[in-house]
UniProtKB/TrEMBL annotation:
The keyword Zinc applies. InterPro entries: Znf_C2H2_sf (IPR036236), Znf_C2H2_type (IPR013087). The keyword Zinc-finger applies. This is C2H2-type domain-containing protein. Residues 35-57, 61-88, 89-116, 117-144, 145-172, 173-196 form the C2H2-type domain. PANTHER family: TRANSCRIPTIONAL REPRESSOR PROTEIN YY, ZINC FINGER PROTEIN 143. One of its GO terms (cellular component) is PcG protein complex. GO terms for molecular function: chromatin binding; DNA-binding transcription factor activity, RNA polymerase II-specific; RNA polymerase II cis-regulatory region sequence-specific DNA binding; zinc ion binding. Keywords: Metal-binding, Nucleus, Repeat, Zinc, Zinc-finger. GO terms for biological process: epigenetic regulation of gene expression. It comes from Lutzomyia longipalpis (Sand fly). SUPFAM superfamilies: beta-beta-alpha zinc fingers.
């Protein structure tokens, strides 16, 4: 087998992403005198350039609010928005705002109707990956969320939180018409139907009453 000339080897190294061992072989055959960063494998022509580059790995940005640290300034500023509540990314459909663009993009799936995350068992689709993961627990039969009072277990944390209101007596959902409180949102929504029916009957009564008045007059 004939040996490849350095120019051909350089073309190969530019076309493929070699393994660690193959990369070293190619660099050696090309006769390149380079210095490799021990943390990210990036190569430099001199020790000075490599040491200057390593500052990227050593630089740390600390959050004064929660003491979380970041290696990049971009990651640090993105995190800081969670404390300042700066919401510069706004949905052009409903005007809901978000601190990060990724969160806005996930939200917009609600409007587009796209559901890119699919259950591999029943093929049910979801707009959010987190919801798909929660759904998958229903198929596994796992119930990792357990009530600390009655030991009842649930597949999803949200269902556990709903259940715990039975023990705490917490009723966070309030009817805006009669101020009656409910532990579950679904129960309050059912209750609101009662008001809508009463309102419809009252409206029909007024129309009927007005009709008789007009007839007599």
């Amino acid at each position: 087998m004939s040996e490849l000339d350095p120019m051909e080897m350089r073309k190969i190294s530019n076309r493929v992403a070699p393994s660690l061992e193959m990369e070293d072989v190619i660099v050696s055959m090309l006769g390149l005198d380079t210095i490799k960063c021990p943390q990210c494998r990036k190569r430099f022509d001199s020790v000075e350039e490599m040491e200057d580059h390593r500052k990227v790995h050593m630089t740390t940005y600390f959050c004064d609010e929660c003491h979380k640290s970041f290696t990049t300034q971009g990651g640090y500023w993105k995190h800081m928005k969670t404390h300042t509540d700066e919401r510069s990314f706004v949905c052009n459909i409903c005007n809901k705002s978000f601190t990060q663009q990724a969160n806005l993009q996930r939200h917009q799936l609600v409007h587009t109707g796209q559901k890119p995350y699919q259950c591999t068992i029943c093929q049910k689709s979801f707009s959010q990956n987190a919801n798909a993961q929660k759904h998958m627990l229903l198929h596994t039969g796992k119930k990792p969320f357990r009530c600390g009072v009655c030991d009842k277990a649930f597949a999803q944390q949200a269902n556990l939180q709903k259940h715990e209101r039975i023990h705490t007596g917490d009723k966070p959902y309030t009817c805006h018409i009669c101020n009656k409180n409910y532990t579950q949102l679904a129960n309050m929504q059912k209750h609101l139907i009662v008001h809508s029916k009463i309102g419809a009957k009252h409206s029909n009564f007024q129309i009927h009453k007005g009709h008789h008045c007009a007839t007599r007059c």
